Amino acid sequence: MKEDAAAEVTPEKTLPMAEILLRLLPMTLSIVAMVVMLKNSQKTTDYGSLSYSDVGAFRYLVHSSGVCAGYSLLSAVAVGVRRPATLPRAWTFFLLDQLVTYMVLAAGAISTEILYLAYKGDVAITWSEACGSFGDFCQKSKAATVITFVVTLCYAGLSVVSSYRLFTRYEAPAPVPINRGDKDTELSS
Hints:
By secondary structure, the protein is mainly α. Helices cover 63% and strands 10% of the residues. The protein contains 4 helices and 4 strands. The chain has helices at residues 11-38, 56-80, 87-120, 135-167; strands spanning 41-44, 48-51, 176-180, 183-187. A two-stranded antiparallel ribbon has the order 1-2. It is elongated and about 75 Å long. The N and C termini lie far apart (55 Å). The relative contact order is 0.14. The model has no long low-confidence stretch (mean pLDDT 84).
C-alpha cells in the first residue's frame, strides 16, 4: 500500500493553513461589521433621521473595518505564498498586525463610548439619551461594535503568532558574570 505524500498531515502544511484561516476570519467579521454599520440609519417623526455617517466614531469604525478587511486578505495571501521566512518579513507582519490590532481596538473603544452616551446620556452637559428614540439604530450599532471587539480578539491572537515568529529568531541573551567581592554570580540581561 502506497502512502500518498500529499495526504500526510505535517506541521509545515497545517500551520500556514491555520494562520490563513485565522487571517480570513477577521476579514469576514470586519466586512460584516462594516455592512451592518453602512446600512445603519433610522428615521423618526419626532427627531428626524440618524445615520452612521452623522457620528464620527461610527465613520471611523467603518473605515477601520475596511482597512482591517483589506489587510486581512492581503496578509492571508502573503502567508499562503510559499516564500522563505526572513527577518524583514517577520518584522513586517509583526508591526502591521500590531497596527491593525490597535486601530480596530480604538474603533471598538470609541464606538462603545458613543453607545454608552447614547444609552445613558450625560446630565452634566445636558446630553439626553438617544436610544429611546433611535432604538433600532442603537441595536445595530451595538452589534457592529461587538463584532469589532471579536475582530480585535482575532488580531490579538494573530499578534501573538507574529510576535512568536519574530522573536524566536533571536537568541536568548547570554548570562553576564558579575564579580561581587569574593562571589561570582551570573546576571541575565
